[in-house]
Each structure stands twice: as C-alpha cells, then as structure tokens.
Amino acid sequence: MIIKTRGIVLKAIKYSETSLICEIFTETMGLQTYIISGVRKKKSKISAGLLQVMSIIDIVAYHKKDREISRITEVKPAFIYHHIPFDVIKGTVGLFMTELVQKTVKEHEENLPLFNFLYDSFTFLDETKNSVANLHIGFMIGLSQFLGFMINPNRSTTLLYFDIKEGLFRSNRIANQDGLDEELSAVLFGFCQKTLQETHEIKLNREERRLLLQRLIRFYQYRIENFNELNTFNVLQEIF
After folding, report:
1. CA distance 51 to 9
2. Domain range spanning residue 220?
3. Are residues 30 and 146 in the same domain?
4. How buried is 136 (Cβ within 10 angstroms: 0-12 exposed, 13-18 middle, 19+ buried)?
5. Among 68, 78, 4, 80, which residue's Cα sits nearest to residue 35?
6. Of 34, 56, 143, 170, whose CB has the highest number of CB atoms within 10 Å?
7. Residue 42 is part of a domain; what is its CATH number?
8. Cα–Cα dist 45/74, whole Å
C-alpha cells in the first residue's frame, strides 16, 4: 500500500553505510518506523538533511501489513524552519519537545488532533517573536491532554496546593517532591488557563521554572511506565 502523508521526525539513526531508520509521527498513521535506503550517498535523490530530528516533511511510503518497518520512497519539506536551526534557545526547546514526544507517544494509528497540536507547536516555536522560555512547560501541559492524563484545573480559594501524584489541587500542601507550594501551584494553574501562544505572559524566574519543570516530569513519571529523566532537561537549565 502506497501512502502520502505529512510527518514530524522524532528520531533518526544511521543504518548501514548509506541508510537511515527514522521514527516519524505521521498525520494519517500515527507513529511509524521507516527505512530510507541510500539517503547518505552523495548522489541520493533524498537529502539526509530533510530527515533531521524535528523536521516536518511530506512523504510517500510503501507499507506492508505485519511489517514493523516500512520504506520511504519520496521526501520533501512540508514546513521549512527559518529560526530554529540558528537560534540556540529555540533549538534546545524544540529538542526537549521532540524528546518528550518520542518517549510518550506510541500509538500507531491516526490521531489528527494530536498531529495538529504537534505541528502547530513546532511551527509556532519557529515563528514566534515572543520569549520561548516558558513554551516547553506549556507544551508539557498541553501534550498531557492528548495522552489521557491532563491536569485537573480544580483550583479554588480552598484548594490551593497542587498534588503531583493525584494530578489535582487540594486544601493541604504535600511537603515533598509530590507537591507544589501555593505560589507555584498558582503559576501552574495559570499555565492551564493559557494557550501555548500565551505562555510568554507568565512571569517566572530561573529557579521557579526549573522546579516547575522538574515537578511536571515527575507528574509524567507517575503516569507513563519507564518514563525516565529527559536528556535535554539539564541543557535547558543551562540555556535559561
């Protein structure tokens, strides 16, 4: 079966001397693994540069039933980044977002709302002129909705403290890594009320941002099996 679809490259590894194996989240078939033969040859019809992590591409692929790895025959850009490749901050935020998706999204069937969320998130990251210092936090919160464990925004005058393990606000603070104090709980609630495009409006200092991101990673760890630390976490701390 020949399919034509857009996709976002989540992972690319070398295979043999001239080929690549890529994990791509596609618009029509969810997460798929592809081999692209000969792409690393000098005279290849497909440029390996099109298959870098985070690339948004149009592909033509040949799928066979019961095959875990399919074959891509044509690739062209669906969106060309103009800023991410040259902006270390945007590039690092984008790599964090990509790693998060790669470790959490496993479905192999069409999920158009999720694809649109990812497409809009990466293109916005590239195009926005506002600060992206909070964008990865908003992305984590937004992605959780598609993974089936969104934060319960039940904060009120009596429910002031966020419980990481339970995923909701409660009246008493948990004084360990499973809880947030009143101030950071209010900030988290604020993120829940903002779109990804509005996250620059939230004011955070470096330590608050680090702590909130750390707690959100723990929030994911409670809900996704074998979800370990993100490799890009420490890089983000250096950048911000």
Report:
1. 7
2. 84-239
3. no
4. buried
5. 68
6. 34
7. 2.40.50.140
8. 8
